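Deviation from plan, reported transparently: nicotinamide-adenine-dinucleotide complex.
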Amino acid sequence: MANLNDSVRAALDACGASGYEGPHATRTPLTGEELIGTVEHTANDVDQAIAKAQAAFREWRNIPAPVRGNVVKRWGELLTEHKRDLAVLVQAEAGKSMSEAMGEVQEMIDICDFALGQSRMLWGKTMPSERPGHRLMETWHPLGVVGIISAFNFPVAVYSWNTALALVCGDTVVWKPSEICKLSAIGADALLARAVKDCDAPADIHQLILADRAAGEQLVNDPRVALVSATGSTRMGREVGPKVAARFGRFLLELGGNNAAIVAPSADLDLALRGVVFAAAGTAGQRCTTMRRLLVHESIADQFVDKLVAAYKTLTIGDPRDESVLVGPLVNKASFDKMQNSIAAAQEQGGTLLVGGKRVLEDQFADAYYVEPAIVKMPSQTDIVREETFAPILYVMTYTDLDDAIEVHNEVPQGLSSAIFTSDQAESEKFLSASGSDCGIANVNIGTSGAEIGGAFGGEKETGGGRESGSDSWQAYMRRATNTINYSGELPLAQGVKFL
Ligand code: NAD
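Because the crystal trials were delayed, the predicted structure below was used instead.
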């Protein structure tokens, strides 16, 4: 296999990145070896980046939105050209299979297409005025500087959802990527810099901050940052939300999930099996939408769970630079330790480990953490099942009545993604109804992960309530003004009020 840092350097060169090398190195989850080090920005650099983004905003907001759209169009073209280069960087830092890393970059390309179209559709409504000779309407305006804080597991895609929309909406962006995914951030930002240059747009509309969480806290506390869009753990969101609210800033939170699927007796079990295995074991359980809980009808439970266990035994685990590998590494030792602790807690709480959970390839990679995805059968939804453990553990429970299953499904603090496998239309409608799944994403006959960019993405409760990507998510990046225009020559007051 080619030397990893040689591949990483070649990918960064191809993206047009320069001047990034420095003493701050992280370890790749693939082998545990150190990656190329980067520079580290200081608090003063963060302050300067916000100031530059704020100054650029004054110019950028006046450029017509469809012209702003040209920048994301060009970015999408460059991402298409350098899809594999960026995927190499994503793989090196997040440990994904090449197919999933390429999929992540494809998501960036898709949101560029979407945002380009949206640049001609930043539409407001008109409403009938109650007064004669008056027009009532709303207009949408750019918000200002958007601070983006992103997580390690989708190091570039979630950033691009925010950036592509923010830029067409007339905002400027300051991005603090995950501290363990700086190289993919440098690659993605270098491609955006090229797009900005090719379109003659103001150079400072995008800023990249390479630093740890203190820089994120600085963005959170700075009143010049109009919107903080933060993706990561619920712990992080719990700290970020109140701080931004205290200064009357806006926030958009995309936090942890604890996603479940119900498998009903009428389900196509082969389809359900493939859907469950991809959602639960894919990306080594490190997606916010990873399936972590499975509720199977008792009449099919034994048969379905046996098939699931058999399918888990066929999963290929290893260095995902080998393209036949399906399950790559956990991101680090802390993640592996958490997985072990959660399995032990589940067993203490009455669970039975059916398959997996063991570290593998330890003799080959002392500092990389490859693990067999685990299935634990639980007698009920205990405390550990209510927590998000960011690793491949699937807790399996059985049910007899769909209403009870939905009750258990919703009885966790998180509310991101959900699914039902059924061929019974009444069951599927019930799951999607007001008394069904309480999640931001509710699917039928498809797993919990792998959303398309066209829909709004996000979840309820401790997942944070934010919506990003498609549908009307663009509105989060703009401010709305209601305009009343009087062309009557009179001054009638609303609600019939008389004065003077
Ligand atoms: P994390 O919370 O450790 O870190 C996320 C980011 O927040 C990092 O850039 C970090 O530096 C920053 N940060 C941490 N504390 C902060 C603070 N107090 N103030 C400002 N910034 C702070 O998360 P992670 O381990 O990188 O990612 C995994 C988590 O992210 C999981 O819980 C996963 O479910 C969640 N996630 C959610 C979504 C979603 O869309 N809902 C998407 C991806 C990941």
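The radius of gyration is 24 Å. We consider this an acceptable substitute for the interim report.
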